[in-house]
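Weekly modeling sync, notes
Attendees: AB, CL, MP (scribe)

Item 1: holo prediction request
CL wants a bound-state model with glutamine before deciding which constructs to order. AB pointed out that an apo prediction alone won't tell us much about the pocket. Agreed to run with the ligand included and paste results into these notes for async review.

Input as submitted:
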Amino acid sequence: MENLYSLAAHRLKELMVKGEAAPSAILDQVFSRIEKFDPKIKAFVLANKEKAKRSVNNPTKLKGKLAGIPVLMKDNICVKDEVTTCASRILAGFKPPYDATVVKKLEEEGAVLIGKANMDEFAFGSSCETSCYGPTKNPWDITRIPGGSSGGSAAAVSADETILALGSDTGGSIRQPAALCGVVGLKPTYGRVSRYGLIAFASSLDQIGPITKDTEDAALLLSVIAGYDEMDSTSVDLPVPDYTKALSKDVKGLRIGVPKEYFIEGLDKEIEAGVKAAIELLRSLGAKVHKISLPHTEYAVGTYYIVATAEASSNLARFDGVQYAFRAGNSRDMIDMYIKTRSQGFGDEAKRRILLGTYCLSTGYYDAYYLKAQKVRTKIREDFDKAFKECDCIITPTSPTPAFKIGEKMNDPLSMYLSDIYTIPANLAGLPAMSIPCGFSKSGLPIGMQILAKAFDEETIFRAAYTFEQYTEFHTKKPKL
Ligand code: GLN
């Protein structure tokens, strides 16, 4: 008998149908993994065994597409009456009075929520090191970061401490940790998944998406969480396909664009080789590969750090000690209370972003920074519009380097920001993009490749990714813990 904890959700579903796996056995196995390995990996900020057991023991709840499947939530997704902190002191002990729409949808399909995953504070970061709980470790090498900001979600899937996980992606926070931990991570098209109940970072960029053991699970999970929601005015009212139907094993005639601006100095040689070999494999299977150009790529990081910090500074204004969670004591008056609460409640990276964003939005600077960034954002989107006239999907590396050492970039924010160079453009353009495992470095660290498609064409991504998985074994490899 295989270990249930190591299987993808679609395999567990098959076993459950045949009566060869029971939800309670799956849950027990997942929790023994958590108890055994999480003290080392630290992917969880909350593991809610009692609540999970109650769901598994309640037959009325175990119905639907994800019946009996354990799912882990990133700690910025609201679960009613369950501590949700965004890994920030300022939200210590905060219990939301409502469920995020994705949580509701998951529970309606029988999923079993097992806890909350560690993350960078308010999703600000690429390494999980800005968390007030301390960093999560990469299961492939615990001296290294798991990526961020959804590092806890990706590490937990990789270490088989959960079957499925949700992350959020504003500039790469699902895809980059998925790449660094050797799992699959999808940022859906902006508007595909409701953001209601996702604690906002940058509202024009944020999307919730799946982090899973393989492509089929990503398609399954997206089918459950996608869809219009009247509680999120930016969610789009389009029918939700059954994405698992897009899992064809055939890329014949698929036009793949490879942007020349992504294979440049600074890209790790082993990653370049891994991604190029993956593209060659797809070509040998019948895809048509050609070079494309996305000329405004070099402005993406700068543009993102203006738009994202501007929106973040405005979104974070609500955390002032009045309405939510933490309030500093010993204040002389209200202003003093605001100052002390925010000084003590936010970590350094959050403060840096609030300052940067407030500056970009202030009178006299708004036109020079924010407005200009919006114009460049349009240029970046136009690059993609043009490219998608010549190709159906675009393949790039997900991250320029494999997982770096814990502490390596913490004192160098600029080099941390640059590590998102390949993932940011998809958020600025609102496009779907997925990272899948496509190799390992000589030292045994996972390598991810990114597949992007037109808005609302997640199906093409699934087609390319699924075909690749049928001919390779990278996604089946597990870290030795
Ligand atoms: N690493 C990027 C940042 O620090 C992206 C984070 C995210 O997608 N939430 O902003």
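Recorded for review: The two ends are 21 Å apart (CA to CA).
Action items: CL to compare against the apo run; MP to circulate these notes.
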